[in-house]
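Anyone able to model this chain together with (2R)-2,3-dihydroxypropanoic acid?
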Amino acid sequence: MKRLLVSRALPDSVMQVLRAEFDVTLRPTTQPMSEDEASAALMGYDAVLPTLGDGFTADAIGRVDEPRCKILANFGVGYNHIDVGAAAAKGITVTNTPGALTDATADIAMMLILMAARRAGEGERMVRSGQWTGWHPVQMLGMHIGGKTVGIIGMGRIGKAIAKRCHDGFGMDVVFHNRSNVADAGVPAKQLGSLADVMTIADVIVVAVPGSPETYHLIDAAALKAMQPHAYLVNISRGDVIDEAALIATLQAGEIAGAGLDVYEQEPHVPDTLKALDNVVLLPHLGTNAEEVRANMGMMAVENLRAFFNGAQVPNRV
Ligand code: DGY
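re: yes, here you go
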């Protein structure tokens, strides 16, 4: 049996399958692997099933001369914690789990749009703290999203699923920014010439590009400045796609209406200055947190491992 390191416990159904087919070692922690652990894993195992935040950096991979590990079967669609170039240079295949989580992540985007625009976080805090004195016509007025314009940054699978929900479910107009030309966004949607155009026009911006060196701080101070004062910003991708300090300053200055965040630059650290703001909804990276979704992601990782060790075409090579 091949030796497999599983970096974090997965749903039981997935662990059972893995244990039946591999000699599994499960790390006894929910914390990400350090770079040292990553290097050691590359030497000690035939395969690793890593996930969010595990330290498979260029340095961690580069310092292993002849890795025993030949596949990193990532649990998750995002693989910004793995230096794919460094892995390729050492002959290590990297796979991910696209598709299994598209709808669940798009749902969280909708939840954040609604929670931010309709002030659900603030309202919940008010009720729980005993501050609610009763309904009245001008209490906690927010923004109705029907008929408004959503601007989607990154029209990949998840961007399209968000566009469909916004258009079909809420009657929103859809504009978007994407690096390459998108012939069919699935619903009527306009691809605009620049990021700034989308930031300027939209009432709600949703960030759905993958995290990578190319998208680091894509939403910077200038992009935030372009937003309208009544607009909301939602991020369900990776925290460092937004310049978090610039976002905090923008919110503190009241230059946009609010934000809904599922991801942060230094997870799990969420700056106190962000927590102090009432017009921000803060979720703990819940984009894929439905039991069946996590099980499906796990089974995709299993399929990738199986195909790899059977010498078959690996379905989700990145
Ligand atoms: C993903 O699949 O990328 C989620 O963010 C969890 O890592």
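The radius of gyration is 21 Å.
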